[in-house]
Amino acid sequence: MIQKKVCMIGSFAVGKTSLVRRFVESIYSDKYHTTVGVKVDKKVVNTPAGEATLLLWDIEGAESEHDLRKSYLRGASGYLLVADGTRSDTLYKALSLQTRAEEAVGTVPFLLLLNKADLTQSWQIQEREMDALRQKSWTVLTTSAKSGQGVEEAFLRLAQSMMEDHNG
Amino acid sequence: MKQAGVQDALDPSSAVSTSNDDETMAELRTLLLGPAEKQIADVHARLTDPNRQLEEVVHVLPAAISVRSRRDGQLADALAPTVTSAIHESVRKDPQPIADAIFPIIGPAIRKAISAALSGMTQSFNQTLAYSVSVKGLKWRLEALRTGRSFAEVVLLHTLLYRVEQVFLIHRETGLLLQHVSAPGSQMQDADMVSGMLTAIQDFVHDSFSTAKGDELQTLQVGELTVWVERGPLAVLAGVIRGNAPHELREVFQQTLERIHLQFGTALSEFKGDASPFDSTRSLLEDCLQAHYDSQPKASDKPAKLTPLNVIVSLLVIAALVLGFFWLRGRWRWDNFIEQLRNEPGIVVAETGTRDGKYYLSGLRDPLARDPAVLMQEAKVDPNKVLSRWEPFQALTPDFVLARSKRLLNTPNTVKLSLKDGVLNAEGFASHDWVIEARRGSRFLPGVNGFRDDRLLDLNRVEDPLLMFVLDSAELVPGQSEKFDALVHDIERLQAQAEAMQKNVTLEIYGHTDESGTEERNATLAAERAQTVASELQGRLPRWTNVTVRAVASKEQLRNEVTEADRATNRSVTFKVIATDAQ
Ligand SMILES: Nc1nc2c(ncn2[C@@H]2O[C@H](COP(=O)(O)OP(=O)(O)O)[C@@H](O)[C@H]2O)c(=O)[nH]1
Ligand SMILES: [Mg+2]
Predict the structure, then answer these.
(1) What's the mean pLDDT in B281-286?
(2) Is residue A98 within 8 Å of residue A67, measured between CB atoms?
(3) Between 20 and 30 A from B49 (CA), which of A99, B82, B405, B420?
(4) Cα B192 to chain center, whole Å?
(5) How far is the centre of ligand 2, averaged over its atoms, from the C-alpha of B222 (Å)?
(6) Residue B412 backbone phi and psi in degrees, to 5
(7) Do A2 and B173 make contact, defined as CB atoms within 8 angstroms?
(8) How far is CA B539 from CA B74, B203, B366, B572, B578, in A?
């Protein structure tokens, strides 16, 4: 069985913990959940490139470039960059976090998740920003930890890329 | 040639010619290097001659082995596969030599193993038994119930000095789990997650608190558990320990980690998430799963030894306490019972005590007094444990005199008896027969000196008023008004008494006829006569609620008609008084 370390990166309250919870336990809590300290969750996934055990690291203090520690990212085979679609500043934050992450672990697979897709009313991310992202040829998914939309797919796609890397 | 030239030049024996030069050179060489030449040749031979090399190694091998073995375990590690395969090979070819070789030790080894196992068993059995009867043991039993563990397991946990319950081998860079072993019976979490968490926590501590480079988290305390972390360049070894492990155990951890680095160095640096190459680290990690138990319960914990004598003594004490309780309770109930008997009217307690393990009791009892057996039952005294003897007697207290009078005189409930200064007083109303009988009987009642019935109505006065009627007529014979007045008066008395005694009274008035006349005529006549009296009475008496008057025709002749007087008597009315309890 292949194990892979995956890190959750993104601004405060974008839904990193909720996404992991959704993926790992398939439950969602509307209660405000501030990650306290450290949480490493585990989930076994099946990808066309093989089965993998994901170890999902979700850590308080992965929220700004200053706090994002090398040790947190060290050894990660991939990461999920999370932004809150109702707060466009979190998207810009995600961009700078990505630079920092690449410095730390090199070019490993990652996805950008625009979370809280269920809150269409207050959605802030415009076509203009989306175009800019597409230019970067990033994989961008919209997700909702609340409805579950896109969550499974996000983790699976990341796992798939990591396994393709693994197999060479 | 250049070399030859030099040689020549050095040769003292050659001065001119080349051959001379050669000789000179050889001479010079002998002069200069003479003593060393042999040594060089010797060294040369040592380096090239296999026989010589063999000799050399043979010479230092034992010492080398012993020095290296003292230094570390690598030699053994290196030799182990060879030795193992050699033994395998040897056994495969011919098992006999090895069997012969270990024959002298195999017997003792087995004996030792068996006795060790047995003594371990006895010890744990003794311990379990010892703890079974102590207060602590009771607590542990509750704990066992609560946690669902077996009692033996709880005892072990508490007598545990330390036990390494789990060992994690973690890839340093990724925090991913390479291998995990756990002691049987220890609680298991998801080792993959624990591995990640442990790494994350270490990183966190390192990043947050470390001052100097190389300061690392070494120990983590979680309740009863301690986590020891040993760090190598490529892998981390973490042991979860219950209790207090000695420092020497850390060295075991360190050596294990070093060995793993040595044997799995490449696999560790090339690790990409596939832990299968580390399957073979299991046995190394299992060496770290050590445990040590406190074989002797501490002196302060020591429960009283469970000797037969102790058991008997405690059983006796318990039995004595139980019996004592019952005895005391029995005694107390008995005393209560006697006290009650003494206060009971009509009972005189003469003697009480215990004899032959039973209570005895004797005294006098008026037959009208309460039954002592019932009193005994009320006092919860076991009748089987009591011998009692009662002599009948007649109590002369007013209560008993009165009660006895009521009973012996067969007193109807329309009569109220009372006793005053030894004189029995009757009130109310009763049949003539009873009045006569009571007057007579009262004279024989103990404690009764007289009988008064002036307030008692003899019902005869009402029931047979001797009112007579004119022949073949419903009219009263004239001149009976005095008799009628007396009747009214008596009925008034009856009413008053009945009211006082809460009785309702029905006065049935029966009309009678003589033998003359037809039956039909007589029936009419009887009804009319009864009605006449009833009407007359109702005219004279107030309307009472507790007195009812009914007129009834009777066919009965009061007496045989022999004379005209008999016939006149039969033309009359009689009364019947029926008393019932008022609601
Ligand atoms: N409506 C909505 N709320 C979400 C979603 N994901 C997270 N939240 C809420 O956003 C808040 C922050 O989530 P959390 O997972 O703690 O964010 P983290 O700080 O990135 O770990 C919480 O109140 C969540 O309930 C989502 O997909 N939809
Ligand atoms: Mg969080």
Answers:
(1) 92
(2) no
(3) B82
(4) 43
(5) 24
(6) -75, 165
(7) no
(8) 143, 123, 53, 19, 21
Q: Per this entry, what is the length of chain A?
A: 168
Secondary structure letter of residue B477 according to DSSP: P
Contact A3 B177 (CB under 8 A): yes
Task: State whether residue B336 is helix, strand or coil.
Answer: helix
Quick check: B423 pLDDT over 80? yes
Helix (H) or strand (E) holding B38: helix B18-48
Contact assignment for B196 to A57 by CB distance below 8 Å: yes
Q: Give the whole-angstrom CA distance, residue A35 versus residue A20.
A: 11
Closest CA to B60 of B71, B68, B72, B49: B68
What is the spatial distance between Cα B357 and Cα B361, in angstroms, rounded to a whole number?
13
Predicted confidence (pLDDT) per residue in B502-533, tens digit? 999 999 999 999 888 888 898 999 999 999 99
Distance CA B346, CA B393 (A): 8
Closest Cα to residue B337, out of B357, B354, B361, B356?
Answer: B361
Q: What is the best residue among A18, A20, A33, A97 to mutate for testing ligand 1's pocket, by most ligand atoms within 8 Å of CB? A: A18
SS (H, E, C) B515-531: CCCCHHHHHHHHHHHHH
Higher pLDDT, B47 or B33: B47
pLDDT computed for residue A62 by the predictor: 56
Contact between B206 and A71 using a beta-carbon 8 Å cutoff:
yes
CB A19 within 8 A of CB A41: no
Among protein residues, the one with the nearest Cα to ligand 1's atom 9 is A15
d(CA B466, CA B574): 8
Among A67, A76, A152, A65, residue whose Cα is nearest residue A107: A76
The highest-level CATH class for domain A2-167 is alpha beta
pLDDT of residue B306: 60
- pTM exceeds 0.90 for this model: no
Mean pLDDT of B288-308: 61
- pLDDT 10s digits, B225-236: 888 999 888 999
Q: What is the ipTM of this complex?
A: 0.86
pLDDT at position B311 is: 74
d(CA B177, CA B193): 8
A16 within ligand 1 shell (Cβ under 6 A) = yes
To the nearest whole Å, the CA of A60 is away from the closest chain B CA by: 10
Q: Which residues of A touch B203 (CB under 8 A)?
A: 69, 71-72, 74
Provide the pLDDT confidence category of residue A119 given band limits of 50, 70 and 90: very high
List the domain boundaries for chain A.
2-167
pLDDT higher than 90, residue A109: yes
Mean per-residue pLDDT for B548-563? 85
CA-nearest of B493, B517, B516, B510 to B567 is B516
